[in-house]
Predict the 3D structure of the following.
Amino acid sequence: MTTARPGLDPELRQLLADMPLVSRLDPETLAQLRRLPSTPVDSLLAHHQADRRDVTVRAEDGAPIPLSVFSPVNDGRTTPAPCVYWMHGGGMVMGDRFSQIDIPLEWLDRFGAVVVSVDYRLAPEATGTTLVDDCYQGLLWVAEHAAELGIDPTRIVVAGASAGGGLAAGVTLLARDLGTPAIAAQMLICPMLDHRNTSTSSRQYAGDPGVWTRETNEFAWRCVLGGRTGDEIPAYVSPALADDLAGLPTTYIDTGSAEVFRDEDADYATRIWAAGGQAELHVWAGGFHGFDALYPQANLSVTARRTRSDWLTRVLPPAPAA
């Protein structure tokens, strides 16, 4: 029996018709996907007034964690800039720090934000808390070097898409529980929050080829968890497990109505409200997973991206007086 499910936005449906889709991932397919070229960041930067600096910080186990820092070309301003700390998507099994980087670079252009993107280690080679810990160590470095980077430490936004959105949620929980660093806001774009994969939307998008299906999600989570089950899985890895969502910074969550993560994302926002926190939730009708990253010029994508930027305009505190 076929499960009824929301249809795609007509424009997105037409665009998606020419895209090769998969219904499941396996080690061989993952290896093939990892061999695909990375985002051509140099040609992308040609469209932005930005300087790039690459640095390496160390994980707690000594492993190198590459970061790229994108700063607005010096325009004579003397006030510290906001910062967007970016975690890329890819199911926590693929991608790199340049994946979806066009999204935060829009905020470099609009707000003069410094964008820092982290190359966390990937599963299945890294499992458990390693990925979120890598992201957290990079964030600590950013906060500790705020003056050097021209960043206002009171205006750091943690952000990510898909797997990166889940890692952003985990990093924010970790920073809350450890008491540092301060995070002004978190932006979770179609975030991957729940390893259990049991929601209605998860079941709706199973069995057929898609951008991200229940089967691909199950494979990715098996890689991340590395055999861990039950109480062995920390909420920093699967943020939907967190018992307490109080004390989080103001949060933006968006998702599509036609994707696997729809219900876990809506539930996370609901639980933030229940804990007395502030969250803004957008469920884009007819949007599939990652629609605005794949087709940024589509009408729905333009609206989604503009809405995020407008939210940042509202929630970021003004720059301190010079």
